[in-house]
Amino acid sequence: MIEIRNMTTSYGRGELFRVAGLTLKTGEITAVIGRNGSGKSTLLKTLAGFLKYQGSITIRGRECRDYSARERAREIAWLSQMLKTVQMDVETLAEHGRYPHHGSTRRMGDADREKVKEALRMTGMEKMAKRSLQELSGGERQRAYLAMVIAQDTPMILLDEPTTYMDLVYQKTFFEILQRLKQSGRGIVLSVHHLEQCFAFCDSICLMDQRTLVRKATPEEWAKDTDTLRAVFGIEMKKTEDRELMYPYMIRR
Questions:
Q1: What mean pLDDT comes out for the span 41-56?
Q2: Helix (H, G, I), strand (E, B), or coil: what is residue 3?
Q3: Which 8-state DSSP code applies to residue 53?
Q4: Residue 44 to residue 147: CA distance in whole angstroms
Q5: Distance from the CA of 33 to the CA of which of 66, 197, 235, 237 falls in 20 to 30 A?
Q6: What is the pTM of this model?
Q7: Which DSSP symbol is given to 246?
Q8: DSSP strand pairing (29-33 vs 187-191)
């Protein structure tokens, strides 16, 4: 579990980004939404340890800044929206997720290999395990990096706009994978632009506006809070019983 209290961090041209209070739990999928420049990526990068902060961020009761990089990597996995096309195959990339758990020798053991195989199976990348990342499409490359994050086997996973290059079919499959990770006890926090998806699959939604956390609420609570959604996005979210729609929530002007 991650607890944030009175946290501020620098943003862009020295502007401040603020979160008064926020709890992120394991066994829960939390979406972070907001307009471009609202602070979604800043929140995730701060939690991942890439940005300095004032105030308090605790991971399982211990202050985040007191963790070494390796210790933090055993607690939180991070996947950026900017993925490098490095010269290695999919399986080798997934194996990188096991490095925080190794000793100084960094040798893969049987348990590590099983974690990697499980991650490749979960993401549907087992048949592409020996293919080079340079041969993959953008969506396939994202799935390969997701396998690396899953293999890292951390209590919390942070994903920055992870569905950007995925086609519509795999986007739905991707959220089904997150559901399975949640059921295994992991906590997932992801920034996302597709409101219908996060309302359909996420347990809670954090709304960012003007570099500040507005509040965290369930999809049902946000659907009722039409004034706030309209003030930020100019739209409302409505739940529908139409089974022909891909997602149970629809955007309304």
A1: 93
A2: strand
A3: -
A4: 19
A5: 66
A6: 0.93
A7: S
A8: parallel
Is 2-252 a CATH 3.40.50.720 domain?
Answer: no
Q: Which two tokens stand for residue 18?
A: 């603020």
Helix axes 138-152, 168-183, angle to 10 degrees: 0
| Secondary-structure percent of the chain, ordered helix, strand, coil, rounded to 5 | 40, 25, 35
Structural tokens at position 190: 């992801």
Bridging pattern class, strands 249-252 and 236-239:
antiparallel
CB-CB neighbours of 211 under 10 Å: 20
3-state secondary structure at position 82: coil
Contact 180, 164 (CB under 8 A): no
> Per residue in 100-145, pLDDT tens?
988 656 788 889 999 999 999 999 999 999 999 999 988 888 899 9
What is the rounded distance in angstroms from the CA atom of residue 34 to the CA atom of residue 215? 11
* List of residues 6+ apart from 1 with CB closer than 8 A: 23, 24, 25, 26, 59, 60, 187
Residue of 90, 88, 108, 110 whose CA lies nearest to 98 = 108
Which tokens belong to 188? 């997932």
Retrieve residue 155's tokens.
């209590």
H/E segment holding residue 198: helix 195-201
Instruction: Report the alpha-carbon distance of residue 73 to residue 60 in Å, rounded.
Output: 14
Instruction: Give the pLDDT confidence of 59-89 residue by residue, as tens digits.
Output: 999 999 999 999 999 999 999 887 777 889 9
Q: Which of 82, 115, 110, 80 has its CA nearest to residue 96? A: 115
- What per-residue confidence (pLDDT) applies to 214? 95
